[in-house]
Design a protein that fits this description.
Largest sheet: none
Number of domains: 2
Radius of gyration: 27 Å
Strand content: under 5%
Length: 122
């Protein structure tokens, strides 16, 4: 046998394997019984977002109160309490950053995070 005939079944098998790998993700989305999963995931992230909103208000308030106390009564400079203020505002911004990624309307698709981040990796 010539080498070209022995490689033909292998290349055909490799092509079929590649075709199967390309077709399988499409078949995975065709599964039944997972209709409510996207709503469950969306509700889960909205619950986390609401908890972040509550926590962010508390953290920013505590950071500002602490900084004000240090400046007024402990005679600290703003540069001394700047790390506390910056950290408090960064933690407070976490809820708004999550809101930008998840979205807040009913028209928001649960895959919006993936769609927004896809151009960075593609």
């Amino acid at each position: 046998m010539t080498p070209s005939r022995t490689r033909t079944p292998r290349s055909l098998l490799a092509a079929l394997a590649l075709l199967a790998l390309v077709a399988l993700p499409g078949l995975a989305f065709a599964q039944s019984g997972l209709e409510g999963t996207d709503n469950d995931v969306r509700d889960f992230f909205r619950n986390i977002n609401s908890l972040l909103n509550i926590a962010s208000v508390a953290v920013v308030t505590i950071a500002v109160i602490f900084a004000g106390y240090q400046i007024a009564f402990a005679h600290k400079r703003i540069s001394d309490v700047a790390p506390v203020l910056i950290g408090g505002f960064m933690i407070g911004a976490a809820a708004q950053i999550a809101n930008m990624l998840i979205g807040d309307g009913d028209e928001t698709n649960p895959i919006s995070v993936v769609v927004q981040l896809l151009p960075m990796y593609a």
